[in-house]
Design a protein that fits this description.
Distance between the termini: 41 Å
Radius of gyration: 20 Å
Order of helices and strands: EEHEEEEHEHHHHH
Structural class: alpha+beta
Strand content: 25-35%
Largest sheet: 5 strands, mixed, barrel
Number of helices: 7
CATH superfamily of the largest domain: LON domain-like
Number of strands: 7
Shape: elongated
Strand order of the largest sheet: 1-3-5-6-7
Oligomer: single chain
Length: about 240
């Protein structure tokens, strides 16, 4: 039986892949509580793409496959402690087995960018007990990593698809193929020994929407990962 554990969940409008860096600015009370709890523990939480079709107690709901983020640095942005800056690194991906809703529901007309919104949430939190969790948690199981690398032939095939897509999207402006080689160099994607991470990075360069990247995160094998990358990079 696969081992599961309970972790905090941070739904975001992005897909975090394993071994990718992710800096975050934290200002909402519920996520400041999440970071505080992580810093007292193992420094890890789950990052999931927001599921636009669902919500949990009024809050953004996560997609069911995400990636563990490990906090490597945490500091106050201002002396008042109202904002935090954290640096994280993606680790293993996981699948949510059971969602644990937050202790509070989203207030009506809640605006996460205002002091008033933060004060309202903090007041509700104090009323129900500050030990209660304002953020989503989930029981998750880890997904085994793909331990194969992509062959150079298949990698070059993906690069050609990417170039064709970028050139097509730029029309009527003319984009030179050699200029795209420089882009690959800039992102360190011009290697003769490509890895799984190269596929993630190339797909991110070719995606217009984070929902296009979610199938790659969910791919269980190298063949399916390459197929999902091809689908994303193929001109529709």
């Amino acid at each position: 039986m696969t081992e599961t554990k309970i972790i905090p969940i941070f739904p975001l409008d992005l897909v975090l892949f394993p071994r990718q860096e992710l800096p975050l600015r934290i200002f909402e009370p519920r996520y400041k509580q999440l970071v505080d709890d992580c810093m007292l523990g193992d420094g890890q939480f789950g990052v999931c793409l927001i599921d636009d079709q669902n919500s949990i107690n009024g809050w953004n709901s996560p997609k069911l496959v995400g990636t563990i983020a490990k906090i490597s640095k945490c500091q106050d942005i201002e002396l008042d402690g109202l904002q935090l800056h954290i640096e994280t690194m993606g680790r293993n991906s996981f699948r949510i087995k059971r969602i644990i809703p937050p202790a509070i529901s989203q207030p009506r007309n809640y605006d996460p960018l205002t002091v008033e919104g933060h004060q309202e949430v903090s007041k509700i939190h104090e009323e129900i007990g500050i030990q209660e969790k304002m953020y989503i948690q989930a029981e998750v199981e880890m997904i085994p990593e793909i331990d194969e690398n992509i062959s150079l032939v298949r990698w070059k095939s993906l690069i050609e698809l990417w170039k064709k897509k970028i050139i097509y999207q730029a029309l009527p402006q003319i984009v030179d193929s050699h200029a795209l080689d420089h882009v690959l160099e800039q992102y360190y994607l011009d290697s003769d020994t490509p890895t799984i991470d190269y596929i993630y990075s190339l797909a991110a360069l070719g995606a217009k929407d984070p929902n296009e990247l979610q199938p790659l995160l969910e791919a269980p094998t190298i063949d399916e990962l390459i197929q999902k990358a091809k689908e994303l990079l193929t001109i529709k």
